[in-house]
Amino acid sequence: MGMLVGVSAGLYVALNLLGAGGGRPNSAQTVQTVNATLCAVWFFSASFGGSVLNKIGPAITASLGVMGYAIYVGSLWYFDQTGKEGFPIFAGVAIGISAGLIFVTMGYIAMSYSEEQDRGKYITMSVNLQAMGSIIGGIIPLLINKNATEAAGVPPAVYIVFIVLMVVGMIGAFALMPPSKITRDDGTPVSVVQARSFGQELKSNLEIFKDWKLLIMIPAFLPAECFLVYGGSVNAFHNNLRTRCLLSFISVVLQVPAGWGLQAILDHKTWKRRTRAFIGLGVVGIPLIAAWIWEIVRVRNYDRSNPPTRAMDWSDDGFVAIFFLFMMNWVFSSLWQYIILYFLGTLTNSPRKAANYAGVFRGFLGAGEAIAFGVDSIAVPYMKEAAVIFTFYTTGVIIFAYLATFHISETEYFNGEDDVVIPKHILEEHPEEAVKVHPEGTLRGEEQHPVESQVTVDAEKA
């Protein structure tokens, strides 16, 4: 699943980081408008994408999720060649639908296919594979443009390679299996999902909005990808093409080991889940806030109506500070999504709920990005943009600190979620809870998944 997100959203990120219009500064307004359309549609497709996923399954949902990205890349190529806006605007709607579907599927698998003790690992694998897509997408234009010191568009070869990779991803998506066909090492399935009508799925989706824990996370969701919009815009304003390529490539390369470092904290075997959440939040939140304060200071004198007469090159004296700040902003803003998915994963083990939680997260993430694209398209001063993003990140850190303090429990396995099959070792480790939920010492559906007699014996002793 992570590879599918890599060849879709990962390549999309790489292309955006080359700058507006795939690298042409004069096409900034059109592409920002298209991306705002994308994110506005994304809000609805993600918010209700869980209902679609629960009805048609992860394979078809993911394939449709990749399709829109291929259309979008083709539209940028067309726009670079012709300057006509019709196709890109249509593509903005297509990728908006696809983005909701692909990311709902990613969150669904990361949160519900994993056991609680491995949730950080699944989240990290998913998001890091998306980053690998950006790495591949970043190294291609970096190699092509390594000697280009002037502003220029993206060569056709880059668009062609991206589209081919996306088509391969569309086909590969059909290898995904539903949770009922995924078996753990102990022989139990991940979930037993009962068939429901689309109306029932939609009703379940809407009921998610009654969950106050989810609702108070919304301010944390909104800025989760605004840094892509802001970073791409400032990058295009201030740096030449080969410097933009270098910054985007190295930042995503650094995201991968940083993600695994965070995973080691989130899945630490000897710490309680609340402790893991606190430490992970601190490791990400503190440098994230510091980076955005620095960014506000850096761009305070930037005038968008008066771009620099000579774009910065990586050989210039002031590049080191720009490089270091860009790395901080990118890496810790990226890790913010790992934190969000981890906190969402503490709320449920149900595939149905996970799909809907992931949808709401991605929906409001898309809404935040749509606002960022819209604001950027009217040339709001960079300092004001950075200040708003900083405010939302800071609010998110406070919200997650509150949830970690008062509302994260050690496990959600015994909360009576209908479609969750509890792993055998969890029942063995919690015999008192096991006998409350499963009086006969069996998992849900005795005829399907009998629990070993030792669990029953231990439960009776308890």
Automatic annotation (TrEMBL):
Residues 441-450 have a biased composition (Basic and acidic residues). Its main location: membrane. Residues 441-462 are annotated as: Disordered. The keyword Transmembrane helix applies. It is found in: Membrane. Keywords: Membrane, Transmembrane, Transmembrane helix. The chain crosses the membrane at residues 35-53, 60-79, 91-110, 122-144, 156-176, 214-234, 246-266, 278-299, 319-345, 357-380, 386-404. PANTHER family: ET TRANSLATION PRODUCT-RELATED, UNC93-LIKE PROTEIN C922.05C. This is Major facilitator superfamily (MFS) profile domain-containing protein. It comes from Capronia epimyces CBS 606.96. The lineage of its organism: Eukaryota, Fungi, Dikarya, Ascomycota, Pezizomycotina.
